[in-house]
Each structure stands twice: as structure tokens, then as C-alpha cells.
């Protein structure tokens, strides 16, 4: 053939600037594209040979990547089908576009999506090269070798050349801005990233060995890839050790995975892969690049949002599907229907595999539960279909360390823990040590207590309440044990209004200042053997604050102080003693003040009742204001008398401090004073 000169298509003036700037977000992707093309060419020849359409010797079928730093070139060579001048004209010169403007308009927001669809992978070479050469000899009988050259403008040269071996060499003359691609270490790193599992051997550089105190090249070619990775094999042909070895090949230096799921489906889409359950530490971190996505063993991305459900970001491993294009944008992944089907399939497969593992070896599943709990809970909270399936194998653990399915646990507790309204009450603790006294009181009463100390449990509890009919989850320290599961109307504390006011002031004035905490004093007629004073925390507010800690949008709750109930047990002998001594000491001084307050309040009411249309005259308003000030003065005097007395009665402070101590709320100077007071009371 004569030397041919020409332009690459008529309307491609703007293609090269687009390739340089917009087509690929990462320049490094060029190597994946060129090596993938070389692998395709190799596999096509193998296919033709198997059909008898190519009768010659296949010979060495490796793909080779060679760096020549001195010459400034990077070469990708194969021994595949090769190209004739006509092939180059068709696949390289005449790119199938009706016009560059239309092309730019169509793909300006999503240029990545065109590669693969239009065979533009070859042109990625111009992102890093100032000149690209193709030297190729087709497998076809009588074919002539051809050399094509282009400097990144639409002009090209094509001519006959000498080439002894079948196949194609793509020679990149690397430009000044991309000299890093002339370093063997850089090429090794990219080949490891993109080509480590390609189905054809890829050779680059030489094997090294230790000699004279350093690593030196040997004369053996270095094969950079594993052509038959674990996910391409049949599960029946693999041992547990094979899966573990593959996991450590993907993630060196990590602990063994807990278990794995081998994906293998060929209808209605093709999908293979292996997903591993790593040991997930309790510090809940969703690492977004744990799962690698491949297309026919070519690495695509480790940003798999959209391909796998969000909760599976906690897994590790490989997914391979030719139904996902090599070059995809995030918006494509999120909107494509095939991808959505794949995501649904993976969810279903993971759920059924977990159920299978649970049924096959429950003891082993229980042993691993603490490590996989966060994954299963996250899945149940974020994926309705997974939640539905997981209700069968989701476990709960009680303070005795026994595991139950949700159904088993309900059967266990519903006889003893159903309240007067027919709700089954699930008692739980978030801290077995700090809440020990409350757990002990509950178990003494014959109740069972669950351990819910995970980071997702505050959300998970709410979800379970919505899923399990007639159920309530109540933290074991949210009320006194008699009120956790109300069986009938509770007995009221038998106090007169004066006693209630006096005792309320007596206890409230002795509560120490606790940072970001508020206390409400209340009275309960509990068992005489129960503690004199107990502290509980409102279930709803505490749960809201726990959830706020994980959800920035709920910071309103997070900023509120902790709200505690300080419950005084009026049946306790200690409290009865305090009440009797307080009345005998203070009644003579408090009774006249209380009588005055009652009389003045009655007078205020009478004036307001007599006012026409509820409007007071100036004279009436003046009298009401005078009476209100007098009431306020008497109340203040009454409060001061009680507060002075409270300081002289160490029992009040002691009972409060004991309750604070049981809840881990007594600290610093207050704790020191409690110890000194305890010694003096002995």
C-alpha cells in the first residue's frame, strides 16, 4: 500500500481537546483502556481458533507493557487478531459521529458514558501522549503489516511497514506533563489497580530478587495478574482456604473474614463475585471503597454506590458484571434499571445466605453475632426487603449472654412482661455495669433484660417497635421497677399538699449541680425494701438525645439538658424517718406561713372571681399585687426555713448522693463530701 495521509473523520476537530480535558476524570485510565483492548484482541483470536476460523499456531498469547524511559515511550503489545489498513481506517479513522458539535452537546455533562459504547478507549492515549503509533499485522492470510501515526491533531499518516509477528503494538510517546508514566513503579501500580485479574497474562518489567543487599531484576518476565481469580471459579471447586487466601490477596494484613457469599447468576443479567464479611469494629465507619466493581475481569471502580445497597458498603470483595459498562458515571449507576436489578439481587442473595448460615450452624452464627450485628441492623434500618428477610435470623442477647431470635424472645417474655394494656414490654440495658442496680431489681422481679449497647441500637429499637405488634421497649433505668411494666393502676404516694411541698423543697435544695442535667422531684409509694431515693431518665427524651448524637439534623434534642426524675420512695423507712423529723422540727414554724399563704390565695381568687368581665379595676389590681407579693414573701421564708434545716439533716443529702452514685452522676467535690459524710455517719 502507498502512504496514506488524511484526517480522522470530517467533523472531529474538537474530539482531541475533549479527550484531553473532559472525557476522563483520571488520566491514568488510559492504561486500562489500552490493555483491555489488547486482551480483547487476544481473546478474539482464541475464539476464532476454537471455531476453526484461524488455523495457525496461537503461540505466546501474553499482553506486554514496556517502558522505555530513554526513548520516552510506553508500549502495549499483544499477539491477538491484529488489524489491516482497512480495519484501522474503519475503527480508528472513521469514528462514528455525525458531528463533533452534536457529540459535545450530547455528552457535555456525562462524557464518561460514551467510552466503551463507541470504542473510544484507544483515544484515551492522547491524554498522556504527544504522538501515538500503531504497528499491526492481522491474523488474516496474506495480510500486510501497517503503521499508523498521529500527533494528537486530526491529521494522521498510515503506511506499510515490516512486522514479523501477528498482533498490535500501541506506542505512546509520552508528553512532558506526564513523564511519571515512564516510571516502571508507576506502571506497576496502575496495572495492579486496573489489570490484576484480567483473563489474559499481562507482562510488565522483570521479576526481582534480593542480591548484594538490594532488589535487582532477573531475566524472568513479571506477570502482574491472576487470570483465574476466585470469583470466576465454581464454589464446589473452592475450599474455605481458597476464599481466605483470595481475601488476603485483596486486603493484605487484615484479619480473616467471618464468612463470605459467592455470587453467580446468569439470568436476567450476568453477575459473579465474592462478598466478604470482615470483622466490623464498633466504631461505626462506612468505608465507601471496600467493594471493587469489575467488568469481565477489568477493574472499573471502587465507588459502588448504586450497584450495591448502602448498608453493604460495610462488606468487602468483588462484583463482576458485563452488564455494567466499563465507564460509568455515578448518576448513570443510580438511574440504570439493570443496575437496580443487580442491587436487588445482591440484597436477596446476602439475606438468604445469612439465613442459610444461621440454620446450618447456629452456634457459630451466635459466636459471630457481635461482629456482624452492626451490619445486619444497618441493613434492616435502610432496606425494607432486607429487613423483612432478616426478621428471621436477627438475634437479640440478654444480660445472661443467651441469644434469641425475635420470635423466640417474644415467646419467652410475653407471659411475665405484658402490661395492663396488652403490650409486651422489652426491657433493655445500654450499660450492664452502670445500670447494674436496675438490672438486678428487674431480674429479681422475674423479668429478662436485653443488652442493647450498640451504636445503632437507639434507631434499631424504634424500628422494632414499629415492626413487632403491641410491643414497647423500655430502658431498665427509665422508671422504678414497679412501674416498668405496669400491671394495674399504681398506688399513689399518700402525702398532704403541705407534706408534698415541704418534702419537695427539702430534697430539691440538696441536689448538687450536675452539668447539663435537670432533676424533677416526684414521690412514689414503692416497696418498703426498695431504695429510699432513685433516679430514672425519661425514655422518650433520652432516646431522642441518643439519636441526635448520630443525626446532625436532630441537634435540637442534643442541645437540651439531660432530664432526670428523682423519685422519693414514701414507703421507705428512711424517708418516713426524714419526714417525721422534718415535721416535728418545722411544723410549728411552717404551719402559720402555710395558713397565711392559703388565706391570701383564697382572697386573690375571690377578687378575681368578683371582677366584671374578668377585668380588674385599678384598686382591685393594686390589692391583688400586694397579696401576691405577700404570698411570694411567705413562700420564700418557708423555703429558707426548709433549706436551712435540710443542711442540718445529713440523711437527706446521703439518700440523694447514694442515688446519684448508683447512676454515675456523683463526681469531684460532691463525691469527696459524700465519702466524708459516710464515714461520719458510721
TrEMBL record:
GO terms for molecular function: ATP binding; ATP hydrolysis activity; ATP-dependent protein folding chaperone; unfolded protein binding. InterPro entries: HATPase_C_sf (IPR036890), HATPase_dom (IPR003594), Heat_shock_protein_90_CS (IPR019805), Hsp90_fam (IPR001404), Hsp90_N (IPR020575), Ribosomal_Su5_D2-typ_SF (IPR020568). SMART domains: HATPase_c (SM00387). The keyword Cytoplasm applies. The keyword rRNA-binding does not apply. Keywords: ATP-binding, Chaperone, Cytoplasm, Nucleotide-binding, Stress response. ATP binds at residues 33, 37, 78, 83, 98-99, 168, 330. Residues 26-178 form the Histidine kinase/HSP90-like ATPase domain. NCBIfam families: PRK05218.1 (NF003555). Belongs to the heat shock protein 90 family. This is Chaperone protein HtpG. The lineage of its organism: Bacteria, Pseudomonadati, Bacteroidota, Bacteroidia, Bacteroidales.
Amino acid at each position: 500500500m502507498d502512504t496514506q495521509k488524511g484526517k480522522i473523520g470530517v467533523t472531529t476537530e474538537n474530539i482531541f481537546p475533549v479527550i484531553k480535558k473532559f472525557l476522563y476524570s483520571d488520566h491514568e485510565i488510559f492504561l486500562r483502556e489500552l490493555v483491555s483492548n489488547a486482551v480483547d484482541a487476544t481473546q478474539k483470536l482464541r475464539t476464532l481458533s476454537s471455531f476453526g476460523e484461524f488455523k495457525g499456531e496461537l503461540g505466546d498469547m501474553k499482553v506486554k507493557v514496556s517502558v522505555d524511559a530513554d526513548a520516552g515511550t510506553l508500549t502495549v503489545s499483544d499477539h491477538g487478531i491484529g488489524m489491516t489498513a482497512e480495519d484501522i481506517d474503519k475503527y480508528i479513522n472513521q469514528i462514528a459521529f455525525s458531528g463533533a458539535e452534536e457529540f459535545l452537546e450530547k455528552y457535555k455533562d456525562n462524557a464518561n458514558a460514551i467510552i466503551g459504547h463507541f470504542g473510544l478507549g484507544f483515544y484515551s492515549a492522547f491524554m498522556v501522549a504527544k504522538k501515538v503509533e500503531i504497528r499491526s499485522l492481522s491474523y488474516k492470510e496474506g495480510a500486510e503489516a501497517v503503521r499508523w501515526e498521529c500527533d494528537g491533531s486530526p491529521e494522521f499518516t498510515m503506511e506499510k511497514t515490516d512486522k514479523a509477528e501477528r498482533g498490535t503494538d500501541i506506542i505512546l510517546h509520552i508528553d512532558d506533563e506526564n513523564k511519571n508514566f515512564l516510571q516502571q513503579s508507576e506502571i506497576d501500580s496502575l496495572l495492579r489497580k486496573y489489570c490484576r485479574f484480567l483473563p489474559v497474562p499481562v507482562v510488565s518489567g522483570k521479576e526481582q530478587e534480593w542480591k548484594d543487599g538490594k532488589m535487582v531484576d532477573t531475566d524472568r518476565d513479571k506477570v502482574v495478574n491472576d487470570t483465574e481469580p476466585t470469583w470466576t471459579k465454581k464454589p464446589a471447586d473452592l475450599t474455605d482456604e481458597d476464599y481466605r487466601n483470595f481475601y488476603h490477596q485483596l486486603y493484605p494484613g487484615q484479619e480473616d473474614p467471618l464468612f463470605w457469599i459467592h455470587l453467580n447468576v446468569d439470568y436476567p443479567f450476568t453477575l459473579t463475585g465474592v462478598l466478604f464479611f470482615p470483622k466490623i469494629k464498633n466504631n461505626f465507619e462506612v468505608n465507601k471503597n471496600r467493594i471493587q466493581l469489575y467488568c469481565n475481569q477489568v477493574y472499573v471502580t471502587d465507588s459502588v454506590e448504586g450497584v450495591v445497597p448502602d448498608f453493604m458498603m460495610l462488606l468487602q470483595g468483588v462484583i463482576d458484571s458485563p452488564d455494567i459498562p466499563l465507564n460509568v458515571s455515578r448518576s448513570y449507576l443510580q438511574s440504570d434499571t439493570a443496575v437496580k436489578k443487580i442491587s436487588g439481587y445482591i440484597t436477596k442473595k446476602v439475606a438468604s445466605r445469612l439465613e442459610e448460615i444461621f440454620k446450618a450452624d447456629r452456634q457459630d452464627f451466635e459466636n459471630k453475632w457481635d461482629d456482624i450485628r452492626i451490619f445486619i441492623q444497618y441493613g434492616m434500618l435502610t432496606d425494607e426487603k432486607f429487613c423483612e428477610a432478616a426478621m428471621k435470623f436477627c438475634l437479640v442477647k440478654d444480660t445472661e449472654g443467651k441469644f434469641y431470635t425475635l420470635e423466640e424472645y417474644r415467646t419467652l417474655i410475653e407471659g411475665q412482661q405484658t402490661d395492663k394494656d396488652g403490650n409486651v414490654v422489652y426491657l433493655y440495658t445500654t450499660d450492664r455495669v452502670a445500670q447494674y442496680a436496675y438490672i438486678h431489681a428487674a431480674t429479681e422481679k422475674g423479668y429478662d433484660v436485653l443488652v442493647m449497647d450498640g451504636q445503632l441500637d437507639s434507631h434499631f429499637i424504634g424500628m422494632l417497635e414499629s415492626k413487632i405488634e403491641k410491643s414497647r421497649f423500655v430502658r431498665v433505668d427509665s422508671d422504678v421497677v414497679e412501674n416498668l411494666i405496669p400491671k394495674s393502676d399504681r398506688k399513689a404516694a399518700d402525702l398532704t399538699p403541705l407534706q408534698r411541698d415541704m418534702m419537695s423543697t427539702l430534697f430539691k435544695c440538696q441536689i448538687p449541680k450536675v452539668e447539663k442535667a435537670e432533676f424533677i422531684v416526684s414521690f412514689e409509694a414503692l416497696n418498703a425494701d426498695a431504695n429510699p431515693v432513685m433516679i430514672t431518665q425519661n425514655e422518650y427524651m433520652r432516646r431522642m438525645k441518643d439519636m441526635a448524637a448520630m443525626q446532625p439534623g436532630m441537634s435540637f434534642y442534643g442541645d437540651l439538658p439531660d432530664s432526670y426524675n428523682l423519685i422519693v420512695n414514701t414507703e421507705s423507712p428512711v424517708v418516713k424517718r426524714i419526714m417525721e423529723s422534718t415535721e416535728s422540727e418545722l411544723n410549728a414554724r411552717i404551719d402559720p406561713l402555710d395558713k397565711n399563704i392559703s388565706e391570701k390565695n383564697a382572697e386573690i381568687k375571690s377578687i378575681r372571681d368578683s371582677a366584671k368581665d374578668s377585668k380588674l379595676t385599678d384598686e382591685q389590681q393594686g390589692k391583688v399585687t400586694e397579696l401576691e407579693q405577700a404570698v411570694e414573701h411567705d413562700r420564700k421564708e418557708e423555703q429558707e426555713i426548709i433549706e436551712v434545716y435540710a443542711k442540718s439533716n445529713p440523711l437527706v443529702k446521703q439518700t440523694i448522693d447514694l442515688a446519684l452514685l448508683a447512676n454515675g452522676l456523683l463526681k469531684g467535690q460532691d463525691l469527696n463530701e459524700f465519702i466524708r459524710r459516710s464515714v461520719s455517719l458510721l
